[in-house]
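Example record for the data management plan.
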Amino acid sequence: MPMRMREEQKDKALHVSCEGWTGVAFGVALFADVCTDVAALAIQKEGGEAALRLFDPYAPAEDVFAGGWPKGVRIALYSNHYQHGFEPTKDDLHNLAALPEGAALYIVRGHRCVRWRGGK
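Corresponding structural encoding:
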Protein backbone atom coordinates (compact mmCIF):
# COMPACT_ATOMS: atom_id res chain seq x y z
CA MET A 1 0.00 0.00 0.00
CA PRO A 2 1.50 3.38 -0.89
CA MET A 3 2.13 5.41 2.21
CA ARG A 4 3.39 8.84 3.15
CA MET A 5 3.45 9.35 6.87
CA ARG A 6 4.38 12.52 8.69
CA GLU A 7 7.73 12.19 10.36
CA GLU A 8 6.79 13.47 13.80
CA GLN A 9 5.15 11.07 16.21
CA LYS A 10 1.73 11.75 17.60
CA ASP A 11 1.52 12.14 21.36
CA LYS A 12 -1.87 10.46 21.57
CA ALA A 13 -4.00 7.91 19.77
CA LEU A 14 -6.42 8.95 17.04
CA HIS A 15 -9.81 9.67 18.59
CA VAL A 16 -12.76 10.89 16.57
CA SER A 17 -16.22 11.36 18.02
CA CYS A 18 -19.40 12.21 16.21
CA GLU A 19 -22.81 13.52 17.23
CA GLY A 20 -25.55 12.68 14.75
CA TRP A 21 -24.86 11.03 11.41
CA THR A 22 -21.34 10.54 10.15
CA GLY A 23 -20.61 12.69 7.10
CA VAL A 24 -18.18 15.20 5.63
CA ALA A 25 -17.06 16.66 8.97
CA PHE A 26 -16.45 13.17 10.34
CA GLY A 27 -14.25 12.28 7.35
CA VAL A 28 -12.16 15.42 7.80
CA ALA A 29 -11.72 14.75 11.52
CA LEU A 30 -10.80 11.14 10.82
CA PHE A 31 -8.24 11.64 8.09
CA ALA A 32 -7.02 15.27 8.23
CA ASP A 33 -3.67 14.36 9.78
CA VAL A 34 -3.27 10.86 8.33
CA CYS A 35 -1.29 10.98 5.10
CA THR A 36 -1.91 7.48 3.83
CA ASP A 37 -4.11 6.03 1.14
CA VAL A 38 -6.51 4.23 3.43
CA ALA A 39 -10.23 3.60 3.63
CA ALA A 40 -12.70 3.39 6.48
CA LEU A 41 -16.11 1.84 6.74
CA ALA A 42 -18.46 3.53 9.24
CA ILE A 43 -21.52 1.52 10.22
CA GLN A 44 -24.05 3.51 12.22
CA LYS A 45 -27.51 2.85 13.64
CA GLU A 46 -30.07 5.66 13.99
CA GLY A 47 -27.58 8.49 14.47
CA GLY A 48 -25.81 6.78 17.37
CA GLU A 49 -22.17 5.79 17.65
CA ALA A 50 -20.50 4.46 14.55
CA ALA A 51 -18.49 1.25 14.37
CA LEU A 52 -15.39 2.02 12.31
CA ARG A 53 -13.20 -0.35 10.29
CA LEU A 54 -10.01 0.90 8.64
CA PHE A 55 -8.72 -1.11 5.68
CA ASP A 56 -6.41 -1.02 2.67
CA PRO A 57 -8.50 0.08 -0.33
CA TYR A 58 -6.22 -1.76 -2.77
CA ALA A 59 -6.67 -5.17 -1.17
CA PRO A 60 -9.75 -5.15 1.08
CA ALA A 61 -10.05 -8.09 3.40
CA GLU A 62 -13.01 -10.40 2.82
CA ASP A 63 -14.44 -9.75 6.28
CA VAL A 64 -14.49 -5.93 5.85
CA PHE A 65 -17.73 -6.26 3.90
CA ALA A 66 -19.14 -9.28 5.72
CA GLY A 67 -22.93 -9.10 5.64
CA GLY A 68 -25.47 -9.17 8.39
CA TRP A 69 -26.26 -5.46 8.08
CA PRO A 70 -28.79 -4.36 10.74
CA LYS A 71 -32.10 -2.92 9.53
CA GLY A 72 -32.01 0.86 9.15
CA VAL A 73 -28.22 0.99 9.32
CA ARG A 74 -26.34 3.79 7.59
CA ILE A 75 -23.08 2.82 5.93
CA ALA A 76 -20.46 5.35 4.86
CA LEU A 77 -17.28 4.47 2.96
CA TYR A 78 -14.45 6.97 3.45
CA SER A 79 -11.49 6.95 1.07
CA ASN A 80 -8.44 9.08 1.88
CA HIS A 81 -6.80 10.29 -1.35
CA TYR A 82 -3.68 12.13 -0.27
CA GLN A 83 -2.27 12.00 -3.81
CA HIS A 84 -5.44 12.04 -5.92
CA GLY A 85 -8.26 14.48 -6.57
CA PHE A 86 -11.86 14.11 -5.49
CA GLU A 87 -12.81 11.48 -8.06
CA PRO A 88 -13.21 7.89 -6.87
CA THR A 89 -10.66 5.30 -7.92
CA LYS A 90 -11.75 2.00 -9.43
CA ASP A 91 -11.08 0.44 -6.01
CA ASP A 92 -13.48 2.93 -4.40
CA LEU A 93 -16.22 2.04 -6.89
CA HIS A 94 -15.55 -1.69 -6.49
CA ASN A 95 -15.79 -1.37 -2.69
CA LEU A 96 -18.93 0.78 -2.91
CA ALA A 97 -20.58 -1.80 -5.18
CA ALA A 98 -19.93 -4.46 -2.53
CA LEU A 99 -21.96 -2.53 0.06
CA PRO A 100 -25.74 -2.47 0.47
CA GLU A 101 -27.80 -0.06 -1.60
CA GLY A 102 -27.81 3.43 -0.14
CA ALA A 103 -24.21 3.33 1.12
CA ALA A 104 -22.42 6.68 0.76
CA LEU A 105 -18.89 7.31 -0.52
CA TYR A 106 -16.89 10.21 0.92
CA ILE A 107 -13.53 11.18 -0.54
CA VAL A 108 -11.06 12.90 1.79
CA ARG A 109 -8.01 14.86 0.76
CA GLY A 110 -6.21 16.76 3.48
CA HIS A 111 -8.67 19.05 5.23
CA ARG A 112 -11.41 18.63 2.61
CA CYS A 113 -13.99 15.91 2.31
CA VAL A 114 -16.70 15.58 -0.33
CA ARG A 115 -19.51 13.15 -0.87
CA TRP A 116 -19.33 11.49 -4.28
CA ARG A 117 -22.67 11.66 -6.05
CA GLY A 118 -22.02 9.60 -9.16
CA GLY A 119 -20.15 12.27 -11.10
CA LYS A 120 -23.07 14.73 -10.99
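Summary line stored alongside the record: Strands lie at 38-45, 50-55, 73-80, 104-109, 112-116.
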